[in-house]
Design brief:
This protein is of the alpha/beta class. The protein is built from 41 helices and 25 strands.
Length: 972
């Protein structure tokens, strides 16, 4: 047994009552053996996830439902998908496809074979100078738009979850968003699709021979599609009904207008695929027509005394040409205070307050001015209120203010959901009425909610008559489920019978509207939908019960309980917004999955074999392979920092001996630092084999997750720090311990990083001073990241006291040459300081060296030479600090072209975690490294030594600090 083995059972939850929806004991062994072996033989072991922890972490999406699959397949390509479909047909099994898992109605969950089509299905190809884009289904809307923005184009669909949702899901659900309406959605902007039918037949709808080939491969399907088309077109009343239903936003059921718009089987199939929720075909690739990216904006957030008063103003702004008119009620506005940047005084808004976010977009300044003239004419007629000081009720062009408005609006589901009562399940409803009846619908909805005892939050795309509202109830209490059921019945009848509206405007039918499909469409139209399903998927392989279900209580099946977990993570609504930012997502678990697994532990009774299985996997899959970069915090609309939770779990797993050893290392860090530098120097001289063998032995003896594994390519030892003078210094320069231990890139002909910083400062006339006693100090991140509380407190107190003395009580700034250490010193040490040390810390001015160089040095430097191109790796710490723009500025002074890869993210080297788990860094950097490898660059730049090492491993190119590049560029 290793010397410092984690405490057994440290993460075992306190005994509690088992939840009614807990995963049953029979699932403890994971996937049934026969199913696992057959799929492994078919696809390979690496593509089949079978442990109980795998099944549980995939058993949730952003909806109120939870269904545990029997197996998860990570498909790599169309051949894998076809093989799974063939297997499922032969074994009478069911298949559900899952990409981002941001669906709000259970579309991404299955009870048999679940296929992950996110991990290996990313990529954007810009076509026709940006007028079209070929996009793989696992690509997020945000990533696709980033590629198109360079061409002045944008996708039509713009869902609020764009940062996380993927194009496969957007097309499969016909998602639209704030501005898409009925003219810019996926159905209207779709150029072509590549589809895989349940039989395994692949169809590229853009192929001129597609209909001919489909007729040969699937003659019965082609005949059946044309037969249904003829029957629908022979019924004028039904044709009129179908056309009328799509005059407002509608994603309930299949797109029957595909039979009217398509003239051939392939054209009909292309239309039916949109909004089919994975129940008819697998969408392997999409080509979308794009729209101009109008950059001239004018926006306002206008406050009204009531929801109905706000709704009444919507037609006026529609007539004025507003592209977006978004509605938010008082509950939404007050809950969004949890979102960074939202005015805190919104918490005091009166209960009935509502707001409209109105935005005009134009291609040029003249167009914007005309829109502003029209808006100004509307404002005097409105019943506006200003109940708190931050309310201006005025239009603005300020991009930062406008971005803040949208941040609050897009956080509707997550911010309101995060503020729900603990232990309650969140339901998101989405319906549309004719825009002219929006105010009436708002009043009716509020009355219905009050009648059933709900106080829901309401928001929506008011310009298009599309409202969303959120309900919270306890799925573990039958009486609460009955109350929800009664409300749903009444709500659906109200929407259909009073307003002739759409029960699902943009979130698709899903599980919770399937029982009400016939209520909206009537028996004849619904009958054609059932025929369509039987025709395309006669064996019922694809996603049964997700869009079509004859069970009148199907929407009440599989509702998930939300057991209490650690307070830091308890507000999570499992939306998945955190997942694109997570460096371990393609390797082990994401932040959402870490919380989902923890909740399942809480559902289990003591002695449960499921609990034992989850705990066995959780240490490695959740705790150890978390990079701890905390980028999940900013990505989460309610600010859940799952990295902090994992650090807390690391602390709980430490035994007393390990904590004492860590505290002793902090106490004697001067000796530890000196020994580490000597060891690095010795390893550099000995070659990589000997230190690799030594560290391998020590890892086995102590603990693999505690002792780093030496690897080829590690930098050599740092040089001695350059001499400086205190007298006349403009700042105190703090070389981070990593830069006092490790040297720079392999080419050592130039200066070290500390030498470059000192030289640049002198060259700019802003000299810096390095205190002689910096050795033995650290920003405390070493202990903080690993959860060593005693060592963390000791070092945090030491460095703050020292820094206060060095800077003469904060009169001089403290410049730190590693972004992670700048973050650690400025923010992360604070909770671990004594009251006295917090007072000292409050007086310090801690500045990242990149910011110091960009703002204080660069204006006084002469750039004498540049390279042609540089690629940047912004570190996760820089993203927390908001320093990315300064990094670009410095790189722009050194290179004629500066590129930040679209796939740039956390490298997951995380100090030494890349040496503890090299597979983590390899996985985290894979997409960024592929972009870097696609073309040559003259310089590879970042701002943190270990991140540079991680990127060098990933790309094979020598990454270096941007400050070294700046020194070369300005050298006389």
């Amino acid at each position: 047994m290793p010397l410092l083995e984690p405490k057994p059972g440290a993460l075992r939850p306190r005994p509690g009552a088992p939840a009614p929806d807990r995963v049953p004991d029979r699932t403890a062994a994971g996937t049934p053996r026969t199913l696992r072996e057959e799929l492994t033989a078919l696809l390979g072991a690496e593509k089949v996830l079978w442990r109980v922890s795998d099944l549980v972490r995939y058993a949730t999406d952003a909806s109120p439902y939870r269904f545990v699959p029997q197996v998860v397949v990570v498909a790599e390509d169309v051949d894998d998908v076809s093989a799974v479909l063939s297997y499922a047909r032969g074994r009478q099994r069911e298949v559900v496809f899952r990409a981002a898992g941001t669906s709000l109605n259970g579309q991404a969950q299955g009870e048999d074979i679940l296929v992950d089509v996110r991990r290996h299905w990313r990529g954007v190809e810009v076509l026709d100078a940006g007028r079209r884009a070929r996009i793989r289904p696992g690509t997020t809307v945000f990533r696709a738009n980033a590629a198109l923005a360079r061409h002045g184009r944008v996708l039509g669909p713009d869902p609020a979850s764009a940062v996380a949702c993927t194009l496969g899901g957007v097309v499969a659900n016909n998602s639209s968003g704030m501005t898409a309406g009925t003219t810019r959605n996926a159905y209207r902007t779709l150029s072509s699709l590549t589809l895989v039918l349940p039989t395994g037949t692949v169809v590229d709808t853009a192929d001129p021979l597609a209909d001919e080939e489909l007729a040969r491969a699937e003659p019965a399907l082609c005949r059946g599609l044309m037969e249904i088309k003829r029957e629908i077109e022979a019924d004028p009343a039904l044709v009129a009904r179908i056309r009328a239903k799509y005059e407002i936003k509608n994603t309930t059921g299949y797109r029957l207008d595909a039979y009217l718009d398509g003239t051939t089987p392939v054209e009909i199939l292309r239309g039916l695929a949109v909004g089919s929720e994975g129940t008819l075909v697998f969408i392997a690739e999409v080509v979308l027509d794009t729209l101009p990216l109008d950059r001239e904006l004018s926006s306002a957030l206008l406050f009204f005394p009531s929801l109905t008063a706000a709704a009444a103003a919507v037609p006026l702004f529609n007539a004025a040409g507003a592209l977006a008119v978004e509605l938010m009620d008082g509950n939404t506005l007050r809950a969004s205070v949890s979102v960074a940047g939202v005015p805190s005084d919104w918490a005091g808004l009166p209960r009935d307050t509502a707001a409209l976010l109105v935005e005009f977009r134009a291609p040029d300044a003249a167009g914007r001015a005309e829109y502003e003239r029209r808006a100004a004419a509307v404002l005097p007629s409105l019943e506006l209120v200003a109940p708190v000081p931050s309310v201006t009720n005025a239009f603005t062009r300020d991009p930062a203010v406008i971005a803040g408005y949208w941040k609050a609006r897009k956080a509707f589901v997550t911010a309101v959901g995060g503020a729900r009562p603990p232990g309650t399940t969140l339901i998101t409803e989405d319906f549309a009425v004719p825009p002219s009846r929006l105010a009436e619908a708002c009043g009716a909805l509020l009355a219905l909610q009050a009648e059933h005892g709900f106080d829901a939050a309401v928001a929506g795309h008011a310009a298009h008559g599309n409202l969303h509202f959120l309900l919270a109830f306890d799925a573990a209490r039958p009486e609460d489920v009955d109350r929800y059921a009664a409300f749903m019945e009444a709500f659906c009848r109200l929407t259909v019978e009073r307003f002739d509206g759409s029960l699902k405007a943009e979130h698709s039918t899903g599980r919770n509207m399937a029982p009400f499909l016939e209520l909206e469409w009537g028996p004849r139209a619904t009958g054609f939908m059932w025929r369509t399903k039987r025709l395309i998927d006669p064996e019922g392989v694809l996603a049964p019960r997700i869009l079509l279900d004859r069970d009148p209580r199907a929407h009440l099946r599989g509702l998930k309980t939300i057991p209490r977990v650690e307070a830091l993570a308890d507000p999570c609504i499992e939306c998945g917004f955190c997942e694109p930012a997570c460096p371990s997502g393609d390797l082990t678990t994401t932040p959402r999955q870490r919380i989902v697994l923890r909740r399942e532990m809480m559902r289990q009774p003591p002695g449960s074999p499921v609990l034992d299985g989850l705990l066995d996997a959780y240490g490695h899959d959740a705790v150890d392979t978390c990079a701890g970069d905390s980028l999940c915090g900013p990505a989460c609309p309610v600010g859940i920092d799952t990295g902090a939770l994992m650090r807390h779990f690391r602390h709980r797993r430490h035994g007393p001996r390990e904590e004492r050893a860590a505290a002793l290392a902090a106490e004697r860090f001067r000796s530890v630092e000196a020994a580490a530098r000597l060891a690095v120097a010795a390893a550099d001289r000995a070659g990589h084999r000997l230190p690799a063998a030594v560290t391998r032995v020590v890892r086995e003896a102590v603990r693999p997750d505690l002792v780093p594994q030496w690897a080829p390519g590690m930098p050599g030892a740092a040089r001695r720090l350059p001499p400086t003078r205190r007298v006349g210094a403009a700042a105190v320069y703090y070389p981070a311990c990593v830069n006092r231990i490790f040297g720079g890139p392999g080419d050592r002909s130039g200066p070290s990083l500390p030498e470059a910083v000192v030289t640049l400062a002198e060259r700019a006339g802003r000299p810096v001073w390095i205190p002689r006693n910096v050795r033995g100090t650290c920003c405390a991140t070493i202990w903080h990241s690993k959860g060593y509380e005693a060592g963390n407190r000791l070092m945090a107190g030491r460095i703050v006291a020292a820094a206060w003395g060095w800077t003469a009580g904060g009169r001089l700034p403290l410049v730190v040459d590693a972004s992670s250490c700048a973050l650690g010193l400025s923010r992360e040490v604070v909770p671990h300081l004594s009251e006295d040390d917090r007072a000292l810390h409050a007086e310090l001015r801690i500045v990242d060296s990149v910011v110091w160089a960009a703002e204080e040095l660069l204006p006084h430097l002469e750039v004498r030479r540049t390279v042609g191109s540089a690629v940047l790796h912004p570190t996760c710490s820089m993203r927390h600090l908001g320093d990315e723009e300064q990094l670009r500025t410095l790189a722009g002074a050194c290179a004629d072209e500066v590129v930040v890869p679209d796939g740039a993210g956390c490298c997951a080297f995380a100090g030494d975690r890349g040496m503890l788990h090299p597979e983590l860094t390899a996985s985290a950097t894979r997409r960024e490294a592929a972009e870097v490898a696609a073309r040559p660059f003259d310089a590879y730049l970042s701002a943190n030594r270990m991140c540079e090492v991680g990127m060098e491993r990933a790309t094979g190119h020598p990454y270096a600090s941007v400050l070294l590049a700046l020194e070369r560029a300005t050298r006389p």
